[in-house]
What we know:
It is a single chain. By secondary structure, the chain is α+β, with helices and mostly antiparallel strands. It has 2 helices and 6 strands. The two termini are about 35 Å apart.
Amino acid sequence: MRRVLLRTALASLALLTGALSADASGRRINPADAAENRINPMSGNLPACDDPAVLGQITSWFNSREAKFWGPLQAVAYDRIKPIGFRPLGDDFIPRRFCSGRMALNDGTLHRVDYSVRENLGLFGLTWNVNWCVSGLDRHRSYAPDCKMARP
């Protein structure tokens, strides 16, 4: 009980003295908590939405998953790629670039693909990683409803 009261008192004191600043969304954050000021700093330097390495990683994982579990669908092309958010959660979170576009499959259908490029979440935290969802093909409902949870 005393710890809760002490934490509340310290937070109130910090707010009153102006030790915390506000970010773009109006939330109050401590500048020392920004991703760039950590012991292992993050730069926010991420590849663009239409970078061939990003789209290649999505294609590779999608084609591998479909061939292994679901059937003959393969991604063949992308269009209408556009960014929909860069660090929308604030400066104190892992830098992410959110993107959306259309994926053409080998059966002639077009599906919306939503993905995020995330810093330091690749192999051993050394590189970027992509988290993606193809609308209509989220068979385990991991990002339900309709890939909404893959967007900011």
